[in-house]
């Protein structure tokens, strides 16, 4: 081994050790446990059950419902975050002056702890004292303050809990999109204008194609994060009422902590992991690198 | 003439729209601030009012006089500092060789770090619980530091790699010509020019740990509860203590917001690095 190789290995070793101990080994343990009947309180006692945990998870109605809810939540949140954030970025870049202080306010929620965002939105939406409904009454949109039970109506709660997510991450979408927009060469847009393209055509044929990699990164990062969401929803409803806002990650947590079923929680955790990897890889190949697809 | 005027009206419309957008975006947090300085009884009045009728620090006094919150802030701070130090200590050297000495193992390594970022924390939380239990580290500061490090190292690796991309290979070669070993060149020449990037990375890892909730919920109980856990409990253990909750939430989030606003340029830069350059 050359001196150079030894240097590379020495510099890499601590990180490899940490990731091995804290990521690779736990993932291995997760997959291993998923084939056993094993209890959270006594994890050293295990009994081989083969694929039973997977079959149980895949045939459970509650698991299927929580998976569906995760998709509903992620699609809804991602759509509005992207729409609001991208429009805000377009607006900022269209401002005649500098948009510096607008963007300063937009950085405000960037680092706000998710549980604070969750509690804040719960406080805005909660029955009786939630100020949002009083605002809507004031604007004449609803008749009285009890008209919409955001967090206790089983039919809408999964969408209501995403408001906090939308508020929290619109700024991320806006600022990343803005950075992408400022990277587009001005002469390209100018050339299109001289060729007679109107504002919409310039946006559709110049801006959007050039923004494709940036949009891809935003969509991948945000979709993965939205699908993983736990704290933001937990703090608002703990999955209630009647499991109506229980997403997949929460279902895994409940089975591990409330029901103490480590084996089944591990099987679901493994499935979750695989789905996220496949989704991210597919998105990466399809959107980010269309030339290779 | 006509064209100039139309542009002006357009400009004003855009300005007005941006103003409305930005103000309504800030409104929820402003309401949280306003609520925290109301007297506790006024917080739950029906109908609610946006501005406080009387300004009172009652809610802040209550949360600071209870022993739970200050203790939780101490835990959060300790865990975040230790996580940052440990993560940077292992991630900075690794990111350096991963970008400056390209070979199969370093490429695989960076790919592994990227994949790790996709792992749902609940999937990792289940086996981490067992691992810490076996090591006797459940509900201890070192245990939570290890759990947070599992998330912070990949983040630090990716950020630091982006910063090291900009360092020319000649810098190390020049130092080696002057008689430095590779380690000396890294420690004495490379690290000093990277302080800006290291500071941004440290800030990100610190905030990641400071904001983390799920691992703290799974892996701690009485001894090392962090701030978000205690704040969440204001709404279950003590009934619906909205006043205390808003004050605690403000104390917990305001420092982070000040830091974010003060270092806005660097933070936005760090967040957009991968997205725009990648």
Would you give an account of this structure?
The complex is a heterodimer of chains A (293) and B (278). Chain A is mostly helical and 293 residues long. Chain A has a single domain, classed as Orthogonal Bundle (MetI-like fold). Chain A has 13 helices and two strands. Chain A has a two-stranded antiparallel ribbon with strand order 1-2. In chain A, a hairpin with a 7-residue loop joins strand 1 and strand 2. By secondary structure, chain B is mainly alpha-helical. Chain B has one domain: MetI-like (MetI-like fold), CATH 1.10.3720.10. Helices cover 78% and strands 0% of the residues of chain B. Chain B is globular, with a radius of gyration of 24 Å. At the A-B interface, helix 1, helix 3, helix 4, helix 5 and helix 8 of A face helix 1, helix 4, helix 5, helix 6 and helix 7 of B.
SSE layout:
The complex is a heterodimer of chains A (293) and B (278).
Chain A: H1 3-33, E1 36-38, E2 46-48, H2 52-59, H3 61-94, H4 100-107, H5 114-125, H6 131-138, H7 157-160, H8 162-182, H9 186-194, H10 199-228, H11 231-237, H12 248-257, H13 262-288
Antiparallel strand pairs in A: 1-2
Helix pairs in contact in A: 1-13, 2-13, 3-8, 3-10, 5-8, 5-11, 8-10, 9-10, 10-13, 12-13
Chain B: H1 2-36, H2 40-43, H3 58-65, H4 68-100, H5 104-116, H6 121-134, H7 141-165, H8 169-177, H9 182-193, H10 195-211, H11 214-219, H12 227-233, H13 242-262, H14 264-277
Helix pairs in contact in B: 1-13, 3-13, 4-5, 4-7, 4-10, 4-12, 5-7, 7-10, 8-9, 12-13
